[in-house]
Amino acid sequence: MFVSTWWIPITKQPEPGHTQLRVGRLTKAHGLKGAIKVELYTDDPGRRFVPGAVFQLQVPTSSPWHGKTIELIELKWYNTHAVAFFKDVPDRTVAESLMKAILWVDQDRAETPDEDDAWYDHQLIGLSVLRDGERVGVVGRVDHLPSQDLLLVTTDAGEVLVPFVKAFVPSVDIAAGTLTVTPPPGLFEELPEEAEKPDELLDGEQRNDL
Asked: Span 18-108: which CATH code?
């Protein structure tokens, strides 16, 4: 059984001055010739998924792909679904060994997203979290789950997961180093294990990496 890859760290460290961005997840083998359906986590696939692009793979340590990269041959579209062909993935059997793998790329830290209301993880981590004008914690991590993105906020009382949606995170001010939250009553007062119920809280759009 292929275990979840969401909490398994990637092995390659970025170059100095760079960070890593999650841009896609391999979901299902397509056909018999090694094609794989891709769930895109980027608003610019024409830039990220070009022939020759190389991705760092986030896979279980038991996978033969652990610690390896993979090179894109071509990205095609079938009925609105993105389908990728990769080097050294010649057939369906090999494609199935890559199911649930998450794709990462190196990104220059100095580069910022082009559109509004979009941020890279490294821009968010370390921001002071404000509620009603008062500092309640700091962003310690950004978790990307299949259902939504979550901000892990470190407070004096422990860690709290906040769905990264407009309803709960109405303002991000990178220049000021702050992020404003308007969570449901009690979220920051609950015990950490009681707070980790993101699916019950989500009521808005998901924000993804570019």
From this structure: 2.40.30.60
Structure tokens, 66: 């652990």
Comparing 127 with 2, which gets the higher pLDDT?
127
Contact 113, 209 (CB under 8 A): no
Q: Which helix (H) or strand (E) holds 62?
A: none
Q: Which two tokens stand for residue 45?
A: 């696939």
> d(Cα 210, Cα 201) in Å, to the nearest integer?
24
Given a contact cutoff of 8 angstroms between Cβ atoms, the answer to whether 145 and 198 are in contact is yes
The whole-angstrom separation of Cα 207 and Cα 150 is 9
Cα dihedral 90, 59, 112, 129, rounded to 10, equals: 160
Whether this model's pTM surpasses 0.90: no
Domain 121-195 has CATH 2.30.30.240: yes
Q: Please report the DSSP string for 4-37 in residue order.
A: --TTSPPSPPPPTTEEEEEEEEEEEEETTTTEEE
A 10 A CB-CB count for 142 gives 20
